[in-house]
Amino acid sequence: MTGASSCCSRIDSAKSFLWGALSMEQDASLRPERILDLSERLSSVAGAKIGEIARVNRAAKMLAINALIVAARAGEAGKGFAIVAEEFKKISTEIDAVAAALESQVRSDLDELSAIGGAILGHMRGQRLADLALNAIEIVDRNLYERTCDVRWWATDSAVVACLAQGDDPTARRYASERLGVILDAYTVYLDLWICDAQGRVIANGRPGRYPNVVGRSVADARWFQEGLRTATGDEFVACDIERCAVLGDAPVATYATAIRAGGEVTGKPLGVLGVHFDWRPQAQAVVDGVRLTSEERERSRVMLLDQRGRVLAASDGQGVLTETFVLDTSAGPMGSYADGDVTVGYARTPGYETYQGLGWYGCLVQAKALAERTVAAA
């Protein structure tokens, strides 16, 4: 093994140890930020001790000078003492030179240590933030993949199919609404489920009591309806970006849709569309709030989910949701990190999951430097 590869191996091992040993709040002394803490402390101690050496040496010099004065007054009897005092003075001068050189070298080495420590820490933090961002967006992907499975499954439900197949039969529509209500009681992550005819008119929903103005509403211009009706088979689905839905209390929703087909068959003729409206806010907030950060890190970090245009879909501080656009530098690729002033940004693009390819969303963490790092940087 070469020296370089051995060094890299040690660095990788150190990173694994540091982050493996850091189990949230268990041992704050193992935080990588301690590198800079200790460097700053060592610099302070070294400076103080070198100053003490200089102070003691100045006192010794004064004693030597006083001794020379006393020896001169003593005349012939003080000559031997004068020689000793002169040598002591020379030694004090040498000690001054050694102390000055030591201070210069120690200061230079400590500055280099701080710079290297800061660079290593910045890289480690950036990689960790990117890993946390990837974990967050993967949780979202898996969650939304389940939503795509739900909509394709429920579109084949016999009550849902019969609601459209039997035309204007009020009994079939009422039963379908009741059936959707049962589903919603079990799947609490949804706000509502809508059955739409081929013209885009909602003819049944799962929560008519909560949302009484849904039935009879036209969604013919909605992207999810239009693309859902055009799906080629029952294996296909439509996934939309987060939008507020006025008729659902202006709540932000992720809507998934697919065609309801004759006989519930995969290749059956499209009769209409099933649209399912995922309750985005509480689910997304749980993801950004659940990112594994220490309490100290959390105070100086912002966790976000962004769409492909950088629009904030969720944020740990609750600010800017669906109104703010965060400019993300993705020049490093689909996953990476970078420094932006006093903050480090880590991000990861959705990798998708199973048949859900994702919508180009990102997990993103923005973290300010710790106080020790800002102090070292200022110095």
TrEMBL record:
Domain Methyl-accepting transducer span(s) in chain numbering: 53-108
Cellular component, GO annotation: membrane
InterPro entries: Chemotax_Me-accpt_rcpt, MCPsignal_dom
Pfam families associated with the record: MCPsignal (PF00015)
Gene3D superfamilies (UniProt xref): 6.10.250.3200, PAS domain
GO molecular function, a single term: transmembrane signaling receptor activity
GO BP field: chemotaxis; signal transduction
PROSITE patterns assigned to the protein according to its UniProt record, in alphabetical order: CHEMOTAXIS_TRANSDUC_2 (PS50111)
Keywords: Transducer
Entry keyword annotation includes Protein biosynthesis: no
The protein, known as: Methyl-accepting transducer domain-containing protein
Species per Swiss-Prot/TrEMBL record: Caulobacter vibrioides (strain ATCC 19089 / CIP 103742 / CB 15) (Caulobacter crescentus)
Source lineage: Bacteria, Pseudomonadati, Pseudomonadota, Alphaproteobacteria, Caulobacterales
